[in-house]
Batch of 3 targets.
Target 1
Amino acid sequence: MSEGQNTPSLRDVYRPYFSIGAAVNPRSLVSHADLLRTHFNSVTAENEMKFEVIHPEEDVYRFDHADALVQFAKDNGMRVRGHTLVWHNQTPDWVFVDDAGQPASADKVRRRMRAHMETVLGRYQNDVYCWDVVNEAISDHADAYLRPSRWMTALGDGYIAEAFRCAHEIAPSALLFYNDYNETKPDKRDKIYRLVAGLLDEGVPIHGIGMQGHWMMTEPSIEEIRDAIEKYASLGVQIHVTELDISVHEYVHEPDKSSAAARVFDERLEREQADRYEQLLQLFREYSRVIRNVTWWGIADDETWRDNFPVKNRKDWPLMFNEQHQPKEAFWRAVNFAK
Ligand code: GLA
């Protein structure tokens, strides 16, 4: 079946459950505008609201791309998820050094965090309804809790609570999220739970957990995903699935990357991926009381970061629309469920 008048809108079908999002960039706002307008009611900037892009130098902010995204969302009745404020990645060096090139003092880093949030959250106060305030702060290693980062070096473990408090002061009506990957692995899941539970205990304003959802065909299992949802939901916070994509490849770790086999996205693989998406979306609908948004990290298979991660130049097909922007089998399963 191909895209046509009878293709239902994903976002309309899911309106009773949760909003449907996509990560976008300045190119895809043009090249994928039709799909966005038809099927999505939420957008996230793939890079354009990240620190290094929007605030590359202390006195320089670049809002052009983020503004265009916000305008596109307004014009098309979509909401904007803000991504992201405090992260170990894609944050410029200047944030952490002083004029002499030495590590900046805690006070200086703190003032810079606040200035960044005042300017960015302030500008989008009425346009961005939620923010991934802190991204990926938990360690993947079993013997460590928090990931070492320059934010933590400068401000200590309390940098996470500080970031949320600061964001809330500046944008009191925004929903504030902690966002991470490997969020279903029991060890990391329990650390994310511990972090958010601790913040809530201290009265820190945090309203949601973002489960990135960069998953594979068989991993994590539906049971593991369910367990994570249950555990996070028990904290009384919302859940957003913030960066969903289902790679059709096995995950390969260094140094096996070179031996990673390329695949062909044939009918059998399309069906298997549709089975996977069908189970996932059924699970998400079951938890729609707490899962309030599901965002794909991209729109159609012609443009996906998975083509270069974890293996460079290995084609992947992780999304709901194919390289020609037509709905895949996964799409039809997502919209044709027994209500
Ligand atoms: C992480 C980040 C996103 C993005 C993806 C990969 O999950 O949160 O901003 O960089 O990696 O594209």
Note: The radius of gyration is 20 Å.
Target 2
Amino acid sequence: MRLGIVIMAAGKGTRLKSKRAKVLHEIGGRPLLEHVIAAAAQVVSPNDILVIVGHQAETVQAAVRDTGVRFVVQEEQRGTGHAIQAAEPGTQEYDELIVLSGDVPLLRPETVLALRDFHLRERAAMTVLTAVPADPFGYGRVLRQSPDAPEVTAIVEQKALEPEQLGVREINSGIYGFQRKALFQHIGQLRANNLHQELYLTDMARILHDAGERVVAIAAAQPEEVLGANTIAEMAKLDRELHMATAQRLMDNGVIIQRPETVVIDARVEVGADTVIEPFAQLLGKTRVGSDCRIRSYAVLENTTLEDQVTILHSCVIEDARIDRGARIGPLAHLRPGCHIGEGAHIGNFVEAKKTHLGKGSKANHLTYLGDAEIGSGVNIGAGTITCNYDGVNKYPTVIGDGVFIGSDSALVAPIVIGEGAYVGAGSVITKDVPADALAVARGKQVIKEGWAKNRRAQREAQKTRG
Ligand code: UD1
Ligand code: CA
């Protein structure tokens, strides 16, 4: 038995009122279609997944090309039945097909496998995955031959429901198993004699049943996983479901999430046990967090790796960074892409860094900008230090050796090298390299005028008494 999976993703998503194709809208930090492909790829190899694209076909293909799936273009979008007609040539090598919808993103691989097994066991021409959600409004309804029988006689869309069918609560998930031969033998019978003048794949239930083929239904274990994303509000609901599911998975693995309903943790994020995540933190993209870390409120981490025992204090914004064991960042620090913070190092409040390596145990605790800097270990960067890395045209590197002390309010004009163990006096503007173990001071010389202030006050007093 050769099994292929077809994903319908050509629709525009009119109900979203968005410029972006529906299947590229994101939940859990990932486009809808990527979620569906990820589930399908747990069941068959990517090469056996055929994605039907149409609306913004090129953008959609580009977004998921690296998954290794195949594509077919449905030039005009004339309905789900029409989409499957367009996919026929690409499916000839298969005996059985599973059809998924690109806008049903919470579907679990286990459920696809259960659908497959049931479909094969029942030797059905068509198997419909169904659910009984709290609110069935808007979905197609599945009409069974009798309430307890698996046999299905038809699927009726919401707007076509007869008054006596309004009470049917079992919905069509838009996910099916098909015997390929039976499907394409009868698919030509689809007619666009409905409200939208489209070819509905759902009509295959009645067509196949009337042709004497076996059409059955199996209910998904969890109704939430087959909810569709057709509007922005539905999208937000699924996003919330997914983030809650991710938080739950992490908590099951020993991560302490203080107010799980307030945090945003994307599906691919990994966190080690005994790490504490405070309310309103966000862990996005491919972020990985070690064990025994603490991520305080309002920190936003994206595509960032933290080793064990790292502390991220309140309101930090960190992107594409690597932070080694025991380091401490923030509060209110901004690490722009390309930073590597060494073991036990500190980045304090109002520090911004970009493409900077701060070595083991080094500290930049206050009010500093570090850009394109290679900083050794045991370095102290004083408050208000600025690496002047940009001359308006080009960016230049700053290199600071181990054990260097940079006094407060220094400007290091790059390209510049501060040798190991050197000192830079506070308030210096450093434009020439500093040799190892030297002291560099570059500021105006201090002038002392003894008694000057006292004299001035005396003059003022004299003026007042004169009148
Ligand atoms: C569909 C089902 C409905 C079911 C619901 C479950 C039909 C007629 N109705 O309705 O019974 O309850 O899904 O979520 O199938 N697509 C194409 N080409 C097209 C049209 C659609 O590829 O020409 C794709 C869309 O991109 C989408 C999927 O098919 O991923 C479903 O289409 P959509 O318009 O969202 O169908 P629903 O109205 O939700
Ligand atoms: Ca839909």
Note: Residues 313-440 form a domain with the UDP N-Acetylglucosamine Acyltransferase; domain 1 fold (CATH 2.160.10.10).
Target 3
Amino acid sequence: MEKFKELGLSEFMLAAIEAKGFTEPSPVQAAVIPTLMNDGGDIIAQAQTGTGKTAAFAIPLIEKLTPRTGKIQALVLAPTRELALQVATEIESLSGDKKLRVLTVYGGQAYGPQLKGLRDGVDIVVGTPGRVIDHLDRGSMELSSISYLIIDEADEMLNMGFAEAMEQILARANPDRRTLLFSATMPPRIADMARKFMKNSQHITVKKRDITTALIDQIYFEVKEKDKFEALCRIIDIEKQFYGLIFCRTKADVDQLVRKLLERNFVAEGLHGDVAQAQREIILDRFKAQKLTILVATDVAARGIDINNLSHVINYALPNDIDSYVHRIGRTGRAGNKGTAITFITPSEYRKLIFIQNKTRSEIRKAEVPDVKEVIKTKKARITEEIDAIVCMGDEEGRFTKWAEKLIEKYEARDLVAALLKQSFEEELDEQNYGEINVPERGGYRVDTRGTTRLFIAVGRVDGMNPRSLVDLIRTTSNIDDRLINDVKVLEKFSFVTVPFTEAESVIRSFSSGKQRLLVKKDRGPNTAPGSPRSGGFDDRPKRQASYKKKY
Ligand code: ADP
Ligand code: MG
């Protein structure tokens, strides 16, 4: 709050800001608020979407206005109904006990309530240009004594075809007002309008890289290099809607991470300098359309990607410099949406992180990698919600109802539902899909020993195998401690064993080369439904839907 205090705001305002949860002003707020608090000329402020422009004018406006003078003191023009409502809500939520009356007027809404509001007297009108002009023409709105005229989202107004309407309003409002214009970009037509209708104006431009990180929850995980992948999988799985860009340092890192994600049945693509232009465009189109929700990239390859409504940006590796960090994380938390930026650091990178934190003047808080149990729990919650939705929609075509009736006659409902859940989700909800992570704890590392994998081995009793000889074979071929080989099951033509996640790859590899060549692969499980998320079928559906809301 220190920085807000320095802007010369009153106690009540600071309290309202604090109650709203703002802790420090965004750059555009830091520039606009003090200027507006002082008497002076007009202001043209250019800063991209999501940088807090609304509060930049709302805060000083609330400070300056006197409730209930009986006259409209400020008019805010917004391009759409939604934006007008958003502005009004932001003003109201920052007003605290100061009872300013705010009225929204926009097209499509009945005139009645608007007329009544205007008759009763309001302090601030937030409206779309078309409807404001209607009221001016009807004589139901009077702008001859306003003190402030604010044009919000000016470039968007232009896109909506409101250029002339805006000029008309500017021409008809009190000439002694103060005019403020906010825009993400400055098209020539807007610049012209500003020249024509604004006086003695001060330009405030917030450079792209100074975007506020206010909407970005920045967190970091301290993990060993070898645990990063497992941590990433859990993060993706615990999110309801993961839509993220994952940054790696090199091309090779990108390729490797994509390969590992695909192995874990995530749908992911990589972008780096060696990806051909045509391919790049295909990938980006799919990513933009959210058909692809996990994109791995290098800094260079991600440059120029104009997608910024991501739920997550993940720094799988720390960027080389502060600019890259700001640039990377700025792809989330835009346009009023909250975003999460996650940075993985190895224990030795802690100082580097603190440096970034200080330089960017942001808070990067430490979080723990979600626990497997928690991931499973959120997945279950997600499945339950999906089932709720399906039940609500009903079986319109009656494709399943008859079948269901037959099954219900045959079994207890509880057993039946349990069986269906098992068939659909057993594999997806298996804790053993997750690997282990060394969780740093006081007094050293605690080893989370959960993750194991079931391996299929193409030898069986017909080959003269028994459990003892199979374990011996695995031990000698892949050099793993036989205590790590469990649940050995030798069948007629093949066998199964369980080994720790970390050993599985090396067992598979050792059997795929050398003198003991044998097919060994990860078992998909006999109970997996065809085409279900982990069955490895070649369907085109997203193999993994992201999971539920987390608390890291
Ligand atoms: P813009 O108009 O620049 O696109 P908004 O004014 O709509 O951005 O603000 C985007 C979001 O950021 C809103 O949800 C707003 O409440 C929030 N916000 C604004 N200023 C701050 C701040 N200083 N700290 C935290 N959140 C803020
Ligand atoms: Mg805005």
Note: DSSP finds 21 helices and 20 strands in the chain.
